[in-house]
Amino acid sequence: MRRNPFVYYGKKALIFLLSVFLLSVTVFYISRLAPGDPLMSYYGERVEKMSVEEKETARGKLGLNEPIYIQYIRWVENAIKGDFGISFKYKQDVMQVIGSRIGSTLILGGTGFVLTFVGALLLGILCAWYEDRWVDRLLCKGGTLLSCIPEFWLSLVLILVFAVTLHLLPGSGAYDVGYKNNVLNRIEHLILPLVIVVLQHLWYYAYMIRNKLLEEIGADYVLLGKSKGLSKRKIMFRHCLRNVLPSYISLMAISVPHVVGGTYIVETVFSYPGIGALSYESARYHDYNLLMVLCMMTGILVIFCNMIGQIINEKLDPRIKATEVVETSEVTEL
Amino acid sequence: MEELLKIEKLSVGIHSPMGKVQAVRDVSFALHPGELLAIVGESGCGKSMLCKTIMKLLPKSAKIEGGRIIANGVDITDYSDKDMRKLRGKLFSMIFQDPMTALNPTVPIGKQIAEAILIHEPKLPKEEVYHRVIGLMELVGIPQPHQRYKLYPYNFSGGMRQRSIMAIALAAKPKILIADEPTTALDVTIQAQILDLLKEIRTKLGTATILVSHDLGVVARCADRVAIMYAGKIVEIGTAEEVYYDPRHPYTWGLMQSLPALNRGAKELKTIPGMPPTLIDPTVGDAFACRNEYALEIDYHEQPPMFKITDTHYAATWLLDPRAPKVVPPIGGRGHV
Asked: How close is the nearest chain A Cα to the Cα of B105, in Å?
């Protein structure tokens, strides 16, 4: 029995839309139910000097007086038209605020993701190749230790060592004042946060690759490969790695939000002007419109990447299709 | 006749947390061109280990501790993995017990066979490789090879997979084929087909074959010579005729008596009492002594040497010593089979 691609992708799209809807409702309600005054982010310190009537007018102007579901419906109506409102804090269109910050995060998260992906793969292969030799043992122990260190602490240590003591690298920001378009300056600022982003995830995936490869190496087909005269290198790269890669790629697709989202704490510690630092601020100052869009962006990224991962898995690995065949044949037998 | 493969006093030990396991102990035999030698024994008696030792596919924990492997007149005991690679597939290759796991599940069958050809002849043009693969698939009895070339292992049944594995094993025209329980994981009708195929291949290509099995009945179909293995040792070896009609070792008697075919009409199937010994720490005396109803006092103190019965028939039991009491075998002779 073959699946109809329209039904298949239609189903996926439906699940996607439903997830996005539920996410938006949840975020909308929770942010408004959280204690704190959104006027603080709009008027800042002045709020304290405002009278009750003035506050009421301000709330009315910002549309905060109506019941939450009405507010939500209005938000959805505007959002569909492409209008996400203004940021209370920056008094600017939300998209403009995000637009000015997203580049920095994409550079940090994107580079971090690529480095993690490639680095983990290479490390994993290295460990599996030298299984139980000193390289493998050292990396396994060191890697586990390293991944146990909290990222904010490691960030501070790196800032202390490389920025404060050695003066080798800058410890905060994305560029120095007046060097906005200087690539070299930007790279200098990128190094420390990038190290943290990569180190945070590297070993987890490297260890997974190592173990999956070792599992494959222990399989019978490797013995058959050896008995026909294949070299260790060819068995490793042509057979074992080939069988490990699909699941790795799908896992990495799922991990995109983790790695990119992992920049949030790093950005805050390094005062790196990206989406992460912005999200943190928006939640703290009840900047509802900004928070809403940032949450939706992250959420959609998570849902989307999960789906991509699943699709890749199903397309690349014939074994998954094989289980499908078994399942359907069992069903018909019953 | 020149020997293709000669094993001399081979011993293999596996280091485990519980101690050293003597998986193969002092095994000697020879394989002649074109013959089918069967090695029979219970599970865990070291049959598979012996096969893997010959091809040097031992796990890291296992080591050859003594003896020599002479292949084609050359001592390969100390060959490195790189040297062995040139021999594997070309001089000898292997078929495994479980065809469900021995193929890479994500590579099409045809490609896996082609790979085996290309290892030893990397410069062969593509079409030639394809023709050879098709030829091999036809040889091992895979119908419609052109359509099946691109199929994956999961599209194949167990028997078809075992045939594909045979095609891979035969791809570089090896002189020796080691079949490690090739039919154990298959159902009975397929078993017979695969055994017939082994025989057919031997006649067509003249490939010498070592067939490992735990089933004397399976072996009876096709073996020229039979070696009975117990606790890492060969206890009896001879032509199929000699071993089946004139067995001399009490263990062989036990194995024969437990064949269902010879128990027809009996209420209970005869069995050998007890369990095979674990091979941790070397045994004193004959490892089979405690299960052997014909055991002599000396069996508990000293291992029996190989006694020669005929030029081709040997057995390791003290019963063959001239001083031993005469024992009438409970089985054997033409009347039985």
From this structure: 7
Q: B335 pLDDT band (50/70/90 cuts)?
A: very low
Q: Which is more confident, A209 or B293?
A: A209
Our CA-based measurement puts residue A243 at a distance from the nearest CA of chain B, in whole angstroms, of: 7
Name the token pair of B50.
Answer: 């012996």
| Model pLDDT for residues A39-74, shown as the tens digit of each residue | 776 777 777 777 777 777 777 777 777 788 888 888
Contact check, Cβ <8 Å, A224/B57: no
Q: Which residues of chain B have a CB within 8 Å of the CB of A232?
A: 81
My answer on whether A213 and A133 are in the same domain is yes
CB-count burial class (<10 Å; 0-12, 13-18, 19+) for A167: exposed
Helix (H) / strand (E) containing B36: strand B36-40
Contacts with A243 from chain B: Cβ below 8 Å: 104-106
**φ, ψ at B331 (rounded to 5°):** -150, 170
Domain containing A51: what range?
A: 5-86
Q: How far is A226 from chain B (nearest CA, A)?
A: 8
Among A20-29, A172-181, B37-46, name the one with the lowest average pLDDT. A172-181
Domain end position, chosen among A32, A55, A86 = A86
CA distance B298 to chain A (A): 42
Together in a domain, A134 and A240:
yes
Asked whether residue A157 falls in the same domain as residue A271, the answer is yes
Identity (one letter) of the amino acid at B126? K
Q: From chain B, which residues contact A within 8 Å (Cβ)?
A: 55, 57, 81, 85-90, 93-94, 96, 98, 101-107, 115-116, 119-120, 152, 154, 165, 168-169, 171-172
* Burial class for B275, CB neighbours closer than 10 Å (0-12, 13-18, 19+): exposed
Over residues B207-231, the pLDDT tens digits come to 999 999 888 888 887 899 999 999 8
- Count other Cβ atoms within 10 Å, centred on residue A178: 8
Domain boundary pick from A29, A54, A86: A86
> Distances in Å between the alpha carbon of B24 and those of A227, B19, B225, B231?
20, 15, 20, 8
- Angstroms from B333 CA to nearest CA on chain A: 40
Q: Do A227 and B105 lie within an 8 Å CB cutoff?
A: no
| Residue in A228, A243, A325 nearest the CB of B168 | A228
Q: What is the number of structural domains in chain A?
A: 2
Residue contact B106–A317, C-beta within 8 A:
yes
ipTM: 0.82
Confidence band, pLDDT 50/70/90 cuts, at residue A334? very low
Question: pLDDT at position A316, please?
Answer: 67
CB contact under 8 A, A318 and B152: yes
Closest to A221 (Cβ–Cβ): which among B81, B104, B171? B104
3 state DSSP class of A152: helix
Per-residue pLDDT, A321: 53
Q: Write out chain A residues lying below 8 Å of B106, CB-based.
A: 242-243, 246, 317-319
B283 contact partners, CB below 8 Å, separation of at least 6: B231, B277
Residue B151's closest chain A neighbor by CA?
A318
Residue B165 has pLDDT above 70, yes or no: yes
Looking at residues A107-114, what average pLDDT do you find? 89
Rounded to whole angstroms, the Cα distance separating B316 from A58 reads 104
CATH number, domain of A259, equals: 1.10.3720.10
How many Cα neighbours within 13 Å face the side chain of A58?
Answer: 17
Q: pTM for the whole thing?
A: 0.78
Q: Same domain, yes or no, for A181 and A53? A: no
